[in-house]
Amino acid sequence: MAALVLIGIASVPQFRTVSNLANVLDQSATLAILALGQAFVIAGGMIDLSVGQLVGLITVVACMLFQAFPDMSLLVVAGCLALAAMIGLINGELINRLRMSPLILTFGMLSVLQGLIFMFTDRSIGQVAPSIAFLANGRLLGIPVSLFLVALVAFAAWYGLQRSIFGWHLLAMGNSADSARKAGLNLYGLIRIAYLVSGLCAGLAALLVAGRLGTGFPNAGNGLELDAIVAVVLGGTPLKGGRVSVVGILGAVLFLGVLNNLLNLLQVPAFTQIVVKGLIVIAAILADRPGRLAQPA
To answer: How confident is the model at residue 297 (pLDDT cuts 50, 70, 90)?
Structure first.
């Protein structure tokens, strides 16, 4: 991380400006909240590929409702967060009832949500409430307001994953679902709550995205699921679950924020940036499995 910052300072003059560094923190807030929600799922040995499109759906719905009911912003926020949490809960319930792989089911939900978005609109629609714009872009004592929200979510995630009985049970399920079941743990309940939290965090992230964009852009969540998974894995949480580090995830989010900023300032093509992120995921997975690479037959 320090090396990346030094490279940016030395090679890109625009990188070291105060406004640019503040922009990095602002942009990282969305990914931080989304990754912390994804951490609940991955810690339990699962995955949620639907969060990116869920961000897009909530962004569109929220801006439509903010424009239609400008005096009911608080109720719109509550409704959008409830909708996001409900979709997360549906993911968990379907995994429980259909006994399907989380990878397959959430990939299917990704397609469903994408279809719903374009049923609403194929272009930017609505406008964001001033209070949400302030949450996403405002400053309090010189500090981005969104960072206060990240701090609250991070504390809740740290306590929920690393200091609560629920978190210990979820990590036990990630280590070995069979052993956790034999120990009498309610795996169905753990799955429901993990996906509910993932959906709720996607809803919060969507409100920040809406605040930054100012309108409901249907493609606002494209690719965010990959970014969230990269941040969680890079932060020290293996894809098979069993352990998690909230501090590590926040550090990974900041690393990715600086990396994205540098790549954008250097005008690296978007598709090349996707390749770089994919390589980072592969490197992080290999680093978590020293000496365990498959030998050729």
So the answer is: very low
End-to-end distance of the chain based on CA atoms, in angstroms? 38
Nearest C-alpha neighbor of 254 from the set 29, 8, 9:
29
∠ CA 67-72-74 to the nearest 5 degrees? Answer: 110
Residue 235 CA to residue 226 CA, distance in Å, equals 14
CA distance 94 to 103: 12
Q: Which pairs with CB-CB distance under 8 Å and at least 24 residues apart come from 157-166?
A: 157/36, 157/37, 157/39, 157/40, 157/246, 158/246, 158/247, 160/40, 160/197, 161/39, 161/40, 161/43, 161/244, 161/246, 162/244, 162/246, 166/190, 166/193
- On average, the pLDDT of the chain sits at 88
Token match 């894809």: residue?
Answer: 239
**Residues forming a β-bridge with 158:** none
H or E segment at 140?
A: strand 139-140
Residues 6+ apart with CB under 8 A from 98: 105
For residue 261, what are its two tokens? Answer: 């900023």
Can you give the pLDDT at residue 140? 85
Contact 130, 145 (CB under 8 A): no
pLDDT at 137 over 70: yes
Reduce the secondary structure of 207-276 to three states and give it as a string.
HHHHHHHCCECCCCCCCHHHHHHHHHHHCCCCCCCCCCCHHHHHHHHHHHHHHHHHHHHCCCCHHHHHHH
Cβ neighbours, 10 Å, residue 256: 23
Both structure tokens of 255: 């690393």
Burial 132-155 (b: 16+ CB within 10 A, else e): bbebbeeeeeeebbbbebbeebbe
pLDDT of residue 7: 65
**C-alpha torsion 182→90→55→116, nearest 10:** 150
- Residue 291 clears pLDDT 60, i.e. is over it: no
